Every structure is written in structure tokens, then in C-alpha cells.
Amino acid sequence: MIYLDNAASTQVHQEVIEEMIPYFKEQYGNPSSIHKYGRTASKAVHNAKKRIADLINADPSEILITSGGTESNNTALLGITYNSRKKHIITSAIEHEAILEPCRRLENEGFEVTYMPVDKNGLINSEDVIKEISSDTCLITLMYANNEVGTIQPIKEIAEVSNKKNVKFHTDAVQAIGKIPIDVNDCKVDLLSISAHKINGPKGVGALYIRKGTTIVPFLLGGGQENGLRSGTENVASIVGFGKACQLAKQDMKKNEKHSRELRDKLVSKIFQEIPKVNLNGHPSKRIPNNANFTFLGTNGEDLIIKLDEHGIAASTGSACSVKVQKESHVLRAMGLSHEQITGSLRLTIGSSNNEKEIDETVQVLKKITNELRKVSPYKEKYGF
Prior knowledge:
Oligomer: single chain
Largest sheet: 7 strands, mixed
Shape: globular
Order of helices and strands: EHHHEHEHEHEHEHEEHHEEHEHHEHH
Strand content: 5-15%
Strand order of the largest sheet: 2-8-7-6-5-3-4
Helix content: 40-55%
CATH architecture of the largest domain: 3-Layer(aba) Sandwich
CATH superfamily of the largest domain: Type I PLP-dependent aspartate aminotransferase-like (Major domain)
CATH topology of the largest domain: Aspartate Aminotransferase, domain 2
Number of domains: 2
């Protein structure tokens, strides 16, 4: 298989697996226990938090362990709003469903939500966001980089203003983390969501950075773990793996960024050379280095995925977090693409294990299957296929 769906999930690094194994076998203690097994587990969790914090230049005490990006986003959004008397939230039209769905719930509970539009490249206008801040705004939540098209947003510019206006700022950095440098002190955010399985760590574990002095309402109540913010016995092995993945992500970031960018640029260039009637979706330069989202006019994205899979190539049309439900991309719709253009979209995302030979093979397969699909396309005459 050629795996080009690294935005959905990544292969767990062997070093991560090896570091996790002892916490399944020998060191299986509960971190809340006061005996040696418990103390060993507790120390492992603390050390992992140090590694997670180090990746984003935070303090370990500011790291809340969660089950992943969805829980981190929900915790940030609901935790801030339920702790505030203010009733206005600012977000964007292209956020992940893990932000949009809680926003819809809050609207039903009497909150006002402003959904900021984006331009044709999926970019938010920071000045427009700033103009929407009012005395009743309690939270701004904008993703760092879009999960479908990879566009990077002007987070720092907006967060600096929100800080001055005493409005909390959250960013979903699940797709950006490990791919580009992120410093929470430099970008001025109050809360930031990340997930392990996007950076070659295990699934089912993530983190929410919460700046010191930021108060949220906890939702999981019980034994008081995670400083009372998330009760429940810690998933020690996965947390340890997450920590190791963060350590490796920081250590190899420059190398991986260069590798992904070179392969991504080659992929884009060769597709444009070999296949006609193709558009690149997302900002041409302000995008994470491993993402390429295309529209192959006259095709259907789901057909492309099935055909690619038959040739041993894994890809996607967009978010993989919707329980296998394929629906029109709200991201591409917000960017102004037509139904026809959205239908023909395909996302290819690079990982550290991909190579040039795989890129060459993928382009040749795509050339073959787009030709096949266009021969029976209802848009055959329109585009002269």
C-alpha cells in the first residue's frame, strides 16, 4: 500500500511502541496508587507531559490529557463558555465538526455564534474577526491549519487583539502540530488542542493546553485526576506514547517539514503536468507542508478513492472523523466551490515514510483512473474529455 492519508491518521513510530510496551506488561500500576507501581506510573505521566509541553513551549502544569482532538475541542469550547456570563462566540465556517457541533448546541442554549467567512483560499480575514469582538464575546475559536485544505490562519494576529480585549482564544492545532513550529507564548493563545495519532503516536489520546490563569468548567467528575479537570484513571501507556511522539516530532521537525514539502510540491507539479482540468484547493503558500487538496473536474471524489484503493493507494476526500459518512465538504463550500467542484475533490497528505517513487506511482495511477472516469462523466461534453 501507498499511504497518502496522513491527515486522517499516521503510522505509530516503532520507538513510540517500544516505549509504551512496559506500561502494558511490567509497569501496569494505577497513577493514583501510592505504592511503587503507582508512583512509577505517575512519574511516567508527568514525564510525558513534559515532552508534550516542550513541543509547544508550554509548562507541564498547563497540559490537560484528553482522549484526542475532539475531546480537547469540546472541553475548551464548553469549558470556557459555561464558565462565563458572556454569550457570544466567534468561530469560522471551516472549523472541524468537533467545534461546529458544540457551537450548534450552544446556539440552542441561548449563545450567539458568529461564523466567520473565508476567501477562495480558505483564509480568514483577521481584521474582520477583530471587528466582530464585542463586550459580550467570551471566546474566539479558530483552527490553526485546516484539516481538509491545509490553509494556515493568522492566529497570532487575532490572538494578540483578543488578549487585549480580555477574550479567551482557542485554536484547534491538531493538523498543524508537529508539521510547523508552534510556540504558545509567541502566538498568544489561551487554549490549544492537539492529538497523538496525527504525529505518529497512538489513537485515543490527546491534550488541551490551558494557559495558567485560564479557568474552565470540568465535565468528567469523580476521583479528581488531572488537577480536577478530567477525572478517571489515566491511560498511562498511551500517554507515554504521546509524550515520545511529541519528543520525536520536535527532534525531527525540520527534517520532516523539508521532506513533506518536497514530496508535496513534486506531487502538485506532476499532477498539473500529467492531468488536465485540475485545481489545487487551499492557499498556495500559507499551508501546512504535507497537504495537497485537488479538484479533478469531471470526476467523483469517492470514485477516485475506491479506484485508488484498488491500486493500493490510500487517500480521502476530507475529514475522516464523520463515521464513514461521505457528505459535501462544508470547507470547500465556504471557499466558494460549486457542487461539481466539491464532488471531484481529493485530499492527499504526505507522511515521513513516503518517498518519491510512491509519488510517481500515485500520479500515474491518478492519470489512468481520471481518464477512465472522465470517459463516463456527465460533464464529458462540457470539458471536452
